[in-house]
Design a protein that fits this description.
The complex is a heterodimer of chains A (about 475) and B (about 170). Chain A is an alpha+beta fold and about 475 residues long. Chain A contains 15 helices and 20 strands. In chain A, the strands form five sheets. An eight-stranded antiparallel beta sheet of chain A has the order 13-12-9-10-11-14-19-17. A five-stranded parallel beta sheet of chain A has the order 3-2-1-4-5. In chain A, helix 11 packs antiparallel against helix 12. The longest helix of chain B is centred in the middle third of the chain and has 4 residues. The two termini of chain B are about 40 Å apart.
Chain lengths: ~475, ~170
């Protein structure tokens, strides 16, 4: 009889939906006790099915439940919790919370609070990255008061440049300039626009990255100073600055192994510099010229982690838990980590497939008929009510193929085999993206949704056959078939 | 059996089950047609069979696809359109009401109410702000007239199809 070499821990999963289920599975696999939470807003919380114990969080708003630090701390004490896994969102990057846990002798399954503090501040993290040899998007160090000054900086960082309101955001108060004349023509206009929209006319000058690619590197570190990377992901297909399709490896980096190496080792270097000790992601922006710049570091597990797991065969959540309790990750060296094939993830969201706006509702039926090898991390069930209180993502469909084209083929078949009735979802949009020529070539950038407009290729004609089939199914059951 | 599909814009499709033939204990053939604006616009045969506890549907009785099991759904989707589904009856009171009544089109929370009873409002004026899925939606009056009743208050969490404000149209 082989004895387990570690004592079972009691792990509280302070999250919901698919990620809570994913973490619970990892806990049980390791022999730990998975303790899930639920609120009165989620009477049929499906993730509880894979937990060992359940705790109800009182209250009706997120502030009273998933974000209520004093109450969660009470729960930890009452249920003798050894460790807390935050998942993503909610308290996953809250240092006040992780600090309190550590002070109470409870293990935080995530990075040490100092790393989160440094990386959580946009300004501080950029300076830190720069100090550690990762370039940041070049630009002025402060407010640019005059046209003359703007032209001087533009000549230093090279055109095109972006005139950007200090207080701007959401695409407003921004204009691209490709030469000196553009700056003359636009400077005062952007100043006026900024002054009226944000009550502050101060401008910055920044290098304008044309058709940028969102590239990120998965990092995993233990408490002994070992930091590994698990290659990159490309997440350039976004709407409202949120990712909807991700893939690994990046088709833009493609066969350029030297570039891949540079990207991944810079990320490791940054993580080492902050003594990183958990799972994390270094996000980069890469221009058409293949120059890359630091964007931010996410100090948590990310939604799209499964595609990295699929190409490397590493269970990131398991490793994250092992790392938190000071155990060995079982990874001998960086070179030992290999990747094979290609993985794609489509985020299945309760939203209108054309406008991409959230569409809460109730799932009246749900069935899957997938090709071999499909992974579906989800929290779907017949009767699920998607409320406006939570994120509209209801599942993640992940396909893997030995080639990118195989992964796309499998994804198209999987999307056809994913039936969600009664709830508007973006499945039709994903089908249009998978069949898009630019996507197939792998040459898309973050402007994909706005330039290729896959939403315009979604067929919205009445599909009578599908409606008849549904009604026929209902009638057949009524007949007692 | 007649089924009515009616969407938010009052588009109405009438789906008639015109013929049912039971081929065996586990296979049935249905004939459906669709009527829109008093015209038959579509007609198809659908086969349903039960195999190993699962329901499958087919248009030719040869190639089959799994069906998602649904009990008595009150809604049905077509890509981006949500239809209310009424099996065997057409609901009364549809049409007219929405013109002067503001109903929720999705569940949400009332953030702000910009009118009070007796206010004169114009068509297109924002009367309520409803927060749904972390976004604020302006709910505008469909008619010009006077606010007759307000059925909600700030902070209320509302379900889909709830009457929020009633406006008496100008004569």
């Amino acid at each position: 009889m082989i004895k387990p070499n570690i004592l079972p821990k009691r792990i509280l999963i302070i999250n919901r939906g698919e990620i809570a289920a994913r973490i619970a599975k990892a806990c049980r696999e390791l022999g730990h006790v998975a303790i899930g939470v639920w609120t009165d807003n989620e009477v049929q919380a499906k993730h509880l099915e894979v937990c060992d114990e359940w705790v109800r969080l009182p209250g009706s708003t997120n502030a009273e439940t998933y974000l209520n630090i004093p109450n969660i701390l009470e729960v930890c004490k009452k249920y003798k919790i050894d460790g807390v896994h935050p998942g993503y969102g909610f308290l996953s990057e809250n240092t006040e919370f992780s600090q309190i846990l550590v002070e109470n002798g409870i293990t935080w399954i995530g990075p040490h609070p100092e790393a989160v503090r440094v990386m959580g501040d946009k300004g501080v993290s950029k300076l830190f990255a720069q100090k550690n040899g990762i370039p940041v998007v070049p630009g002025s160090t402060g407010v640019v008061p005059t046209i003359k000054e703007a032209i001087k900086i533009a000549n230093e960082i090279k055109y095109p440049i972006l005139l950007k309101a200090v207080a701007g955001g959401g695409g407003r108060g921004m204009r691209a300039c490709y030469n000196e004349e553009d700056i003359h023509a636009n400077f005062e206009a952007v100043q006026r626009e900024a002054a009226s929209a944000f009550k502050c006319g101060d401008l910055l000058v920044e290098k304008y990255i044309v058709n940028p690619h969102h590239i990120e590197v998965q990092i995993l570190a233990d408490k002994k100073g070992n930091v590994f990377h698990f290659f990159e992901r490309e997440c350039s297909i976004q709407r409202r600055h949120q990712k909807i399709v991700e893939e690994a490896p990046s088709p833009f980096i493609g066969d350029d192994e030297a570039l891949r190496q540079r990207v991944c080792t810079s990320a490791v270097k940054l993580a080492k510099a902050i003594n990183y000790d958990s799972a994390g992601t270094v996000e980069l922006i890469m221009g058409e010229d293949r120059e890359f710049y630091f964007l931010e570091m996410n100090t948590r597990i990310q939604v799209e982690h499964p595609i990295t797991e699929e190409i490397t065969g590493i269970d990131l959540i398991v490793c994250m838990i092992q790392s938190a309790f000071g155990e060995d990750l079982g990874i001998p060296s960086q070179d030992w980590i290999k990747r094979t094939g290609h993985a794609i993830e489509c985020r299945i969201c309760a939203e209108d497939p054309i406008t991409m706006l959230p569409a809460p509702g109730t799932v009246t039926g749900c069935e899957t008929n997938f090709p071999q090898g499909i992974r579906f991390d989800n929290c779907l069930y017949k009767g699920l009510i998607v409320t406006p209180d939570f994120d509209p993502m209801v599942g993640k469909l992940i396909s893997k193929g030995i080639l990118r084209s195989v992964a796309i083929r499998k994804m198209i078949a999987a999307l056809d085999g994913l039936l969600i009735e009664g709830l508007k979802t973006n499945i039709p949009l994903h089908k249009a993206i998978m069949k898009n020529e630019t996507f197939a070539k792998g040459t898309y950038s973050t402007s994909f949704i706005s330039t290729e407009k896959p939403q315009d290729h979604v067929d919205i004609e009445m599909d009578f056959t599908s409606i008849y089939k549904q009604i026929a199914g209902i009638e057949a059951r009524r007949m007692g078939l | 059996m007649r089924t009515y599909l009616i969407d938010n814009e009052k588009n109405e499709y009438i789906i008639d089950l015109t013929k049912t033939t039971a081929h065996s204990a586990d296979m049935v053939e249905f004939e459906f047609r669709t009527i829109k604006d008093d015209q038959e616009i579509n007609k198809e045969l659908i086969y349903v069979r039960k195999l190993a506890g699962q329901y499958f549907a087919s248009t030719d009785g040869i190639k089959w696809n799994k069906l998602a099991r649904q009990d008595s759904p009150s809604i049905m989707l077509n890509i981006n359109r949500v239809f209310k589904l009424y099996r065997g009856y057409k609901p009364s009171g549809l049409g007219g009401g929405d013109e002067s009544g503001l109903f929720t089109q999705m569940p949400g929370k009332v953030v702000k109410i910009f009118c009070k009873i007796g206010d004169n409002v114009v068509k297109g004026q924002t009367l309520v702000i409803l927060e749904a899925m972390k976004m604020e939606n302006e709910i505008k009056s469909g008619v010009t007239g006077q606010v007759k009743a307000i059925h909600v208050k700030t902070g209320d969490a509302l379900d889909n199809g709830i009457l929020m404000v009633e406006v008496e149209p100008e004569e």
